[in-house]
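In the design runs reported in the main text, the only information available to the sequence generator was the tokenized backbone. The following block is the verbatim input for one such run; it is reproduced so that readers can re-run the procedure and compare outputs position by position.
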């Protein structure tokens, strides 16, 4: 057996201190065992360098070695005293069994996948764990010959507690097992067999595990299962109770949106010329209204003259035409008709747009505030705008455009299918065509600019969008990271073009989701290699950039259950115990603004630095799998410059068709 070097031992000691003890595991036996077991012996050779990071790692056969913290957390829940006879189901790499064996007497572990069972046995032997016994079998039936057990640990998620396992638990013994009908998220429960027929159940955490497959488990790996890493979040709040008190002290608490003083916020924004305002959902009235209030203030007293939103460029252009009273030809499509329609077609946005329409009317054209869309989902409408613009200024180039863009036209109903076909060679790439047209258009700038500069800029942006969207649909095929980055890069580039177009004094307010606006490098997105417009703005504009995030505890939200599904008003679940939202909820403030920069905030910011969960609700909300699908890890103080909390919120009000009847034809929300 190879001997542990001092270096590795020191690394493990540090790792256990930082990842296990600091997160609330207190049982000395468990901490001792975690320090003792060499995890690198249980991971594939090429991943050894990552053995002491707190994350699950692949071990082959589609399975993972559990995250160390969750192994420690589960074993602590078994409350072992030493010397017990323990059963584990789901040996995987054998790591958890090795940790158990440092405390218990004999450990029996069962693994369903033969190859893994063999490897686990070999790993355990290498690690010198002689009292661990590995069996290749369906663990849902336990290990009857060796029963009863003092403790049972199940390392895979089951729909229900297998009765065989309950029967094999000694009276007084404990079983820890992830349970739940939802394959994406389970409840970690502890069962204590108090008497022959008395099983007591406690819920101890929300977790996500790979499935327990077998006679008394799941039937087979259905589509609901994905290769998401398991992750545990402890439900016993580990945070100090005084932290919410400190937040309340350092924040500007306000009773409601009508009574909020924006003066100090205005001061903090100072000389910034890019202000990013987020939202924690795409369907919360309070976020829209508060954002509009801040925006109005910045326009009125700080000279901001552009609003750039996470909306389609051509649709946003319709708002711009209306608010800047521009005279442009009517378009052929309905603005904001694409899912999710409620995101911009709502009462809250309408109120703001109408205000800006009126305010702009009193100003000369150059002084009017403009409105732009940053997103790139409008490929085909953008094609139409470019062609119709060219038809009016340069019919020859319009003909060329029609031909070049013709390459994309067969795919209008399903642009993702274009990406697939182009990648697999089943269809030619349109990359050259769209790139050429953009160049040809930009070369004509001087010639066309004698006309309407706004219209040329609009056409050029649409042509840029077509080029980026063409790429977007091709990289989408490779997965979410590349396409996410491309989308946020497009937003950032668009922002820069807009600022440039409006000249050196331009000041812009960005409206987008927290996940775009908050610096991605402060969240788990960065671990996936993702960045966003907030991060890019900081890198480029700092210190002339200020970002504001939003959060809420509960209430209602407008969202759909699935893409293209109907909008529903749903209840938001109260915030998770390990989230920033819970901390803010515990302040008991109905609403507050918390600056995260500046000397007066330093002590608080230091205490908020410990990563916690944060919730993101987009156009889709699935409360039933909330932890798995809507929470991510973040360091709030690094993510935003300021955080606005509204404890209870309500759904936005989508516009009904009737409500916009009688409006002029140019009205952006008309139908
Ligand atoms: N404890 C392991 C991680 C286990 S992952 C470690 O520390 O590495 C869950 C394991 O449970 C997988 O290896 C999976 O193959 C196994 N498993 C799933 N259903 C099972 C069943 N019915 N019986 C035994 N093992 C099962």
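Verbatim output:
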């Amino acid at each position: 057996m190879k001997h542990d070097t001092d270096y590795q031992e020191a690394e493990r000691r540090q790792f256990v201190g930082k990842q296990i003890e600091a997160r609330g595991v207190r049982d000395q036996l468990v901490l001792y065992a975690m320090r003792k077991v060499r995890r690198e012996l249980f991971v594939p050779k090429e991943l050894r360098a990552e053995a002491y990071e707190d994350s699950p790692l692949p071990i082959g056969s589609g399975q993972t070695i559990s995250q160390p913290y969750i192994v420690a957390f589960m074993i602590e829940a078994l409350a072992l005293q030493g010397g017990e006879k323990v059963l584990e189901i789901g040996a995987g790499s054998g790591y958890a069994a090795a940790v158990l064996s440092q405390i218990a007497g004999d450990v029996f572990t069962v693994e369903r996948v033969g190859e893994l069972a063999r490897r686990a046995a070999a790993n355990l032997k290498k690690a010198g764990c002689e009292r661990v016994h590995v069996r290749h079998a369906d663990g849902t039936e336990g290990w009857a010959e060796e029963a009863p057990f003092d403790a049972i640990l199940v390392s895979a998620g089951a729909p229900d507690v297998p009765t065989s396992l309950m029967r094999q638990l000694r009276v007084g013994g404990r079983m820890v097992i992830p349970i739940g009908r939802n394959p994406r998220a389970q409840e970690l429960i502890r069962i204590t067999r108090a008497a022959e027929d008395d099983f007591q159940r406690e819920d101890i955490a929300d977790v996500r595990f790979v499935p327990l497959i077998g006679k008394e488990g799941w039937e087979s790996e259905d589509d609901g299962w994905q290769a998401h890493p398991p992750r545990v979040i402890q439900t016993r709040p580990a945070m100090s109770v005084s932290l919410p008190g400190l937040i309340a002290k350092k924040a500007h608490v306000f009773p409601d949106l009508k009574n909020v003083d924006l003066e100090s916020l205005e001061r903090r924004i100072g000389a910034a010329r890019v202000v990013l305002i987020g939202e924690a959902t795409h369907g919360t009235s309070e976020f829209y209204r508060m954002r509009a209030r801040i925006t109005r203030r910045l326009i009125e007293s700080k000279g901001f003259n552009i609003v750039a939103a996470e909306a389609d460029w051509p649709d946003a252009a319709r708002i711009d035409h209306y608010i800047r009273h521009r005279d442009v030809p009517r378009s052929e499509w309905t603005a904001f008709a694409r899912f999710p329609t409620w995101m911009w077609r709502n009462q809250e946005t309408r109120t703001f747009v109408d205000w800006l329409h009126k305010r702009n009317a009193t100003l000369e054209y150059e002084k009017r505030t403009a409105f732009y869309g940053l997103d790139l989902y409008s490929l085909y409408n953008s094609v139409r705008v470019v062609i119709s613009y060219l038809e009016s200024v340069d019919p020859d180039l319009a003909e060329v455009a029609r031909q070049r863009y013709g390459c994309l036209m067969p795919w209008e109903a399903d642009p993702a299918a274009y990406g697939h076909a182009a990648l697999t060679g089943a269809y030619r790439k349109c990359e050259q065509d769209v790139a050429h047209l953009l160049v040809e258009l930009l070369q004509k700038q001087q010639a066309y600019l004698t006309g309407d500069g706004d219209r040329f800029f609009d056409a050029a942006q649409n042509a840029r969008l077509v080029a980026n969207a063409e790429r977007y649909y091709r990289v989408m095929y490779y997965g979410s990271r590349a396409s996410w980055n491309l989308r946020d890069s497009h937003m950032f580039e668009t922002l820069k073009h807009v600022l440039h177009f409006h000249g050196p004094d331009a000041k812009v307010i960005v409206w987008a989701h927290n996940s775009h606006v908050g610096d991605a490098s402060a969240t788990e997105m960065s671990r996936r290699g993702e960045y966003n417009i907030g991060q890019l703005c900081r890198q480029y504009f700092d210190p002339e950039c200020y970002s504001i995030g939003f959060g809420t505890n509960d209430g209602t939200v407008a969202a759909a259950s699935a893409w293209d599904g109907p909008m529903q008003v749903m209840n938001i679940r109260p915030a998770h115990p390990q989230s920033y939202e819970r901390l803010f909820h515990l302040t008991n403030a109905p609403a507050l603004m918390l600056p995260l920069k500046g000397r007066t905030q330093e002590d608080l910011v230091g205490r908020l630095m410990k990563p916690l969960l944060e919730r993101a609700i987009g156009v889709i909300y699935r409360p039933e799998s909330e932890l798995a699908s809507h929470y991510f890890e973040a360091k709030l103080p690094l993510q935003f410059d300021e955080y606005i909390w509204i404890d209870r919120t309500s759904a936005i009000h989508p516009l009904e068709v009737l409500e916009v009847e009688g409006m002029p034809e140019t009205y952006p929300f008309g139908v």
